[in-house]
Specification:
By secondary structure, the chain is α/β, with parallel strands linked by helices. Helix content is 32%, strand content 20%.
C-alpha cells in the first residue's frame, strides 16, 4: 500500500453500455487501483441480477487492503435505464434499458402537458417508461410498485439500503426541474407522484454502507455511499474541465459536444439541453457526423498512415459535410440534410484531410451555436474518444476553433464518479 492509505480512498463504479469498471482514487484524485467486468451473456439471467453480480465482481477485485480504507463510493449508470421496485427494493418486472423505445404512445401523450423541449418527450425517457408500466402492467402489479429507480440509484441502494433516492442528473429525464430543484406541478395529473424517487444533488452523501454490504465487500462500516450521476456526465467530470468556457468534445462514432457554462441553454429543435453542475450548467449537443463516416472509407491502419501524410496547416478547400446517411440534428436541425462528400480527390490523404476538416467545421459551428444561444464563450477544448490521439486532426481543429485543444488527461467515467464523491467529502469537511 502507498503512503496515502491512511487517508482513505474513493471508489467510482461505471455501469456503461458494454461492461462495468470500478476505479479507486486517492485523496488527490489520482488512480490507485481499478477493475472491470463484462455483463453476463444475453438471456443468462435478469438484467438486475447481472448488474448485482458485476458490482460484486468489480468491488471484490480491488485489493483487500485498499477496500479496508475506502471512505466514499458513488455509482454512475446509463441515463434512462430504469427499474420498477416494490417496497423491499425488488424489481417487479425486467428493467428497461436506456434505448428502449416502446413507450411511443406515452411520449406522445406527454406533449400535451410537458413543456416544449423537455427531455421527457422522448419514448426512451424515464418518465415515458414509468407511464408505459402504469398503462400496461396488471393492476395488481402496478399497485405493488413503490418507486422507480434508475440503474445507478438501484445499485447504490444495494450498498446503503435506503430505498427511493436518485440524483438530479438521472432524474432530468423523469421530469425533475433542475432549475427549481423540485418536481414540477405539471406531473400531478399523471398520478405517479407517489412512485417518484427523492432527488439529491449528484455526489451528495446518502448514508453509511449497510453492515451486510460492508462485511461482504470488506469495506469499513464508516464508508459513505453518495448519490451518483450518468455515465456521460461522469466522463466529463473525469476530463479535467472545471472552468466556464471549457468543453469536452467526444470524437467517437458520432460527435458530442459538452460545454461548461454559467448560463443554462435548452433548445429542443437542436436536441440541446443542460445538466446542472452545482451553480453551473453542462450544455450539450450531438451531431451525426463523426468517426463512423471515416470508417466507411478507411481502416484503422489507413487512418494512422494517411494522417501522417496530411498537411493540416494547408487547408484542402474541400467543403464536406460528412454524414453516413441523410439527416442531422445539431448544429443544423434538418432530418433530410444530405451528406456532402464530393468531389473526391485522387489522393486518399487529401480526401481524409477534407473529411477531418468537415467534421472540425461542424464542431466549431456547434460551439458557436451554443454561444449564440447564450452559453459561455468557448475557451478550451479537451478531447475524448478514438480521435483524441490524432495530432493532425487536433491541429486542424485548433485552427478552426481558435482555442487550445488537447487530449483529456483522463476519460474514464469511473474516475469522474470517484472524484464526484471525493469532492463531496472535501466540501463537507
Amino acid at each position: 500500500m502507498t503512503a496515502e492509505a491512511h487517508q482513505g480512498y474513493a471508489i467510482g463504479v461505471d455501469f456503461g453500455t458494454s461492461g462495468v469498471r470500478a476505479i479507486a482514487v486517492d485523496q488527490s484524485g489520482a488512480i490507485a487501483a481499478q477493475s472491470r467486468a463484462a455483463y453476463a451473456a444475453e438471456g443468462a439471467e435478469s438484467l438486475a441480477a447481472q448488474w448485482q453480480a458485476a458490482l460484486a465482481t468489480v468491488l471484490l477485485a480491488l485489493p483487500a487492503p485498499l477496500r479496508a480504507s475506502v471512505q466514499d463510493i458513488a455509482i454512475n449508470g446509463t441515463s434512462a435505464t430504469v427499474l420498477l421496485c416494490d417496497r423491499g427494493g425488488i424489481p417487479l418486472v425486467e428493467p428497461l434499458r436506456y434505448d428502449d423505445g416502446r413507450a411511443i404512445a406515452q411520449g406522445e401523450a406527454l406533449r400535451a402537458i410537458a413543456p416544449g423541449g423537455s427531455p421527457v418527450l422522448s419514448p426512451t425517457s424515464s418518465l415515458a417508461k414509468l407511464l408505459w408500466w402504469r398503462d400496461t402492467l396488471p393492476p395488481a402489479t402496478w399497485q405493488r410498485a413503490a418507486v422507480l429507480l434508475h440503474q445507478a440509484d438501484w445499485l447504490a441502494y444495494q450498498l446503503h439500503g435506503r430505498l427511493g433516492i436518485s440524483d438530479y442528473h438521472n432524474a432530468l429525464k423523469l421530469g425533475y426541474d433542475v432549475g427549481s430543484l423540485a418536481y414540477p406541478d405539471w406531473l400531478q395529473p399523471l398520478e405517479v407522484a407517489s412512485r417518484l424517487p427523492q432527488v439529491l444533488a449528484p455526489g451528495a452523501a446518502i448514508a453509511p454502507i449497510t453492515a451486510a454490504a460492508a462485511q461482504r465487500y470488506g469495506l469499513p462500516p464508516t464508508c459513505i455511499i453518495h448519490a451518483g450521476t450518468t455515465d456521460s456526465i461522469a466522463a466529463f467530470l473525469a476530463s479535467g474541465a472545471t472552468q466556464p468556457g471549457e468543453a469536452v468534445t467526444s470524437l467517437g462514432s458520432t460527435l458530442v459536444l459538452k460545454l461548461l457554462s454559467t448560463t443554462r441553454v435548452d433548445d429542443s429543435r437542436y436536441g440541446i439541453y443542460s445538466h446542472r453542475l452545482g451553480d453551473r450548467w453542462l450544455v450539450g449537443g450531438a451531431s451525426n457526423t463523426g468517426g463512423a463516416v471515416l470508417q466507411q472509407f478507411f481502416s484503422t491502419d489507413d487512418l494512422v498512415r494517411l494522417s501522417r501524410a496530411m498537411q493540416p496547416d494547408q487547408p484542402t478547400g474541400l467543403d464536406y459535410y460528412p454524414l453516413c446517411r441523410p439527416g442531422e440534428r445539431f448544429p443544423i436541425a434538418d432530418p433530410h440534410l444530405q451528406p456532402r462528400l464530393t468531389p473526391r480527390p485522387a489522393d486518399p490523404a487529401q480526401f481524409l484531410q477534407g473529411l477531418l476538416e468537415g467534421i472540425a467545421r461542424i464542431e466549431a459551428q456547434g460551439y458557436a451555436h451554443l454561444q449564440t444561444l447564450g452559453a459561455t464563450p468557448l475557451s478550451r477544448v479537451w478531447t475524448a474518444g478514438g480521435g483524441a490521439q490524432n495530432t493532425a486532426w487536433t491541429s486542424i481543429r485548433q485552427r478552426l476553433l481558435g482555442v487550445p485543444v488537447q487530449p483529456a488527461p483522463e476519460t474514464e467515467a469511473a474516475v469522474g464518479t470517484a472524484r464526484l464523491a471525493l469532492r463531496s467529502r472535501h466540501r463537507s469537511s
